Amino acid sequence: QLLELRGGSLESGGSLRLSCLASDDTVRRYGMAWFRHAPGKVRGGVAASNNDNSRTYAESVKGRFTITPDNAKKTLYLQMDSLKPEDTARYYCAAQPGWCPYPLIERDYNSWGQGTQVTVSS
Prior knowledge:
Blueprint lengths: L1 E4 L2 E4 L4 E7 L3 H4 L1 E7 L6 E6 L5 E3 L7 E6 L4 E6 L8 E8 L14 E2 L3 E6 L1
Parallel strand pairs: 2-11
Antiparallel strand pairs: 1-3, 3-8, 4-5, 4-9, 5-6, 7-8, 9-10, 9-11
């Protein structure tokens, strides 16, 4: 079970850190990722941490977002800096067993949180 925390509303240029708390050792064993769904758009991958500890980022967030798994705390973080209005979306964390060849594609993810809203105003 995954639970996203720490969404919110803030102004453009600000920072926010999302947390995804797992009920077991999912963070340690699984590949995990953050996805987002904005109104009128298809849900898409933002950042992923594969089970080989490699990281993958969407082009739109490279250099601004950082995904970090914390195995001891069973928590996956997404640090978001230099936020823009186009980052406004509902953010979801997801997990999938094994190594994922396309970590920003949701097809292989079989465990999802309920999502948390992030709203960035200009």
